[in-house]
Amino acid sequence: IVGKSKKYDHIMTAARKLFFRYGIRKVTVEEICAEANVSKMTFYKFFPNKTKLAETMLTEIFDENERVFRELMDADMPFSEKMEILVQRKLDTGKDAGMQFIAELYQTSDSEIATYLRANIRERMKNTLKEFAKAQEKGWMRKDIKPELLMIIFDKMQEIAGDERILKAYDNVEDMTREIANFFIYGISNER
């Protein structure tokens, strides 16, 4: 990336809006440029292609969520409150995402985006597990749960989010995310 600017921000905002609404595959560079009110030349100044733009957008979302996660884990409040804030944040982040976008991310295993997403999530999960280990040491989480189990559950949650039966069961991403997250969080909390 050459450098962030207002035009970069416009492209990112347009991409997020269009990708969330229609999925990454259905949106063209031309549509992103029209929504962002920039030329294709400007687009290519920042991104070599739509895939790199999608990866950058996802990375920015993940980075912000990880920053908030770390701040919350360090905050002086009950663990259940921390987790509720994280769930709400996840809901807020994904509330504009359509089911098509989610299905595309989690159901497609052979795309560059899916490969990127899996690798990125695995790496971030390692950091999350370290934070959960600290929470166990502090007595906020059950100590009888192995971190390896948490990693497997996280992986399975990704699969669940992309399962056609789940996608058909929910009208929107927000409800689906809330239910999956609550099921996970209150199963690991030491507070009952």
Secondary-structure topology with pairs:
Blueprint: H1 6-22, H2 29-36, H3 40-46, H4 50-74, H5 79-94, H6 99-107, H7 112-137, H8 147-162, H9 164-169, H10 173-188
Walkthrough of the structure:
The chain is mostly helical and 192 residues long. It is 76% helix and 0% strand. The mean pLDDT is 79. The radius of gyration is 18 Å and the shape is globular. The chain is built from 10 helices and no strands. The chain has helices spanning 6-22, 29-36, 40-46, 50-74, 79-94, 99-107, 112-137, 147-162, 164-169, 173-188.
Short description:
This protein is 76% helix and 0% strand.
Beta-strand residue fraction: under 5%
Distance between the termini: 47 Å
Largest sheet: none
- Give average pLDDT, whole number: 79
Binned, the helix content reads over 70%
Structural class: mainly alpha
Shape: globular
From the alpha carbons, calculate the radius of gyration and give it in angstroms.
Answer: 18 Å
Tally of helical runs: 10
Which oligomeric form is depicted?
single chain
Low-confidence stretches: none
| Number of strand segments | 0
**In sequence order, what are the helices and strands, one letter per element?**
HHHHHHHHHH
Note the main attributes of this structure.
mainly alpha, globular, 76% helix, 192 residues
